[in-house]
Amino acid sequence: MIAADRPITLAVVTGAHGVTGEVRLKPFTEDTAQFKAYGVFEANGSSLTLKKLRPDTKGWVVRFLEITDRNQAEALRGTALTVPRKALPDLPADEYYHVDLIDLPCLDETGNKIGISVAVENYGAGDILEIEKADQKRFMVPIAQAVTFQDDHLVIAADFIE
C-alpha cells in the first residue's frame, strides 16, 4: 500500500558553494529535468524553491530563492530535500519505487507472516530487501530472486528465509 504523503528524499545538501548562497547537492536521481520540475522541496520543516541548477563534478550546484548568503547555505549541510510520494511520476505495473516496499508485511509462500520490510539496499549486485522479524532480528534477501510483489504485501521465497 502506497503512502502518498510519505516524504521521498531526492537529494541531500553537502555544503555551501561560493559566497552567494549556492549549495552543493548529492542527488539520488540522475534526471535533472524531473528534479527541476518539482520546483519546491521540503527541507527540515520549511520549503525551498529551486531557482537554478547546474551539474558539477561532485553532484549538482543549486540556488534556492530563500537562501541568499553562505551562512544560510552552510546551515543546510546534511539537510534532505524531499517531495511527497504522490509527486513522483507513475510507473508501469512491473516497476516500483523502493519507498513503496518499506513497511510492507512479508509472508512466506504459504501465507505465514515472516516480518516487515524495513529497507532496500543496493551494494552493486542488485536490489536487496531487508526484513525485520518479530524478534527484531533482521535478514536480507535479493529482490530479483526472492520477492514476489502483491498489492499490500511481499511474498518471500522459502529458500531465502532465515
From TrEMBL:
UniProt source species: Zymomonas mobilis subsp. pomaceae (strain ATCC 29192 / DSM 22645 / JCM 10191 / CCUG 17912 / NBRC 13757 / NCIMB 11200 / NRRL B-4491 / Barker I)
GO molecular function: ribosome binding
Family recorded in the similarity comment: Belongs to the RimM family.
Gene3D superfamilies for the chain: PRC-barrel domain, RimM
This protein's UniProt keywords: Chaperone, Cytoplasm, Ribosome biogenesis, rRNA processing
Compartments where located: Cytoplasm
Role this protein plays: An accessory protein needed during the final step in the assembly of 30S ribosomal subunit, possibly for assembly of the head region. Essential for efficient processing of 16S rRNA. May be needed both before and after RbfA during the maturation of 16S rRNA. It has affinity for free ribosomal 30S subunits but not for 70S ribosomes.
Domain description: The PRC barrel domain binds ribosomal protein uS19.
Keyword Cytoplasm on entry: yes
Pfam families for this protein: PRC_RimM, RimM
UniProt cross-references to InterPro entries, sorted A to Z: PRC_barrel-like_sf (IPR011033), PRC_RimM (IPR056792), RimM (IPR011961), RimM_N (IPR002676), RimM_N_sf (IPR036976), Transl_B-barrel_sf (IPR009000)
All copies of domain Ribosome maturation factor RimM PRC barrel, residue ranges: 99-149
Highest taxon, organism lineage: Bacteria
Subunit: Binds ribosomal protein uS19.
Residue intervals of the RimM N-terminal domain: 10-86
UniProt name for this protein: Ribosome maturation factor RimM
GO annotation terms (biological process): ribosomal small subunit biogenesis; rRNA processing
Matches recorded under SUPFAM superfamilies: PRC-barrel domain, Translation proteins
GO cellular component, one term: ribosome
